[in-house]
Inverse folding.
């Protein structure tokens, strides 16, 4: 179980690194005017590397938060190989749902947020492209919500698998 929780934290951190590489591309302002200060990124790393650092720091802990219930729910499967398989499947379900929420948020933000339609965000000093900054804020928030929805989906998936296994006498 502790190893699987570590796997969940590494997977969540890796997801954050990839996620923040994409959002850095969408809005460098989000990092240069906000995230680098929030996460205390050194000045010489305020680039793609800094975005990766921010992504890791902002999400690794979601692995513990989401991974804990997944590894506990997987105890319903007594076979060690099936237990591990269900945990990994649960982690994948969480990541896919979180990614889907992020993509949907990007589509929503792209369709609804523009220079003439800005949400009432607190825009830090130095933000040049407020629309891109707001879109990335929506994507980040939706991705965290996606992690929670992914956890629910993973637990439902495990419950269905357990019921089916019980129906087959396992």
């Amino acid at each position: 179980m502790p190893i699987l929780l570590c796997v969940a934290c590494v997977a969540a951190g890796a997801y954050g690194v990839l996620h923040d590489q994409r959002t850095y591309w969408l809005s460098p302002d989000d990092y240069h005017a906000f995230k680098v200060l929030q996460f205390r990124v050194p000045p010489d790393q305020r680039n793609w590397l800094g975005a990766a650092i921010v992504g890791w720091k902002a999400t690794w802990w979601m692995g513990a938060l989401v991974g804990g219930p997944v590894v506990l729910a997987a105890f319903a499967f007594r076979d060690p190989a099936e237990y591990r398989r269900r945990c990994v499947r649960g982690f994948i379900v969480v990541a896919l749902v979180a990614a889907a929420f992020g993509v949907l948020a990007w589509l929503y933000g792209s369709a609804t947020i523009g220079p003439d339609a800005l949400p009432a965000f607190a825009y830090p000093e130095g933000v040049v492209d407020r629309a891109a900054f707001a879109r990335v804020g929506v994507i980040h928030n939706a991705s965290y919500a996606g992690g929670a929805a992914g956890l629910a989906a993973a637990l439902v998936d495990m419950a269905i698998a357990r019921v089916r296994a019980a129906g087959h006498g396992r």
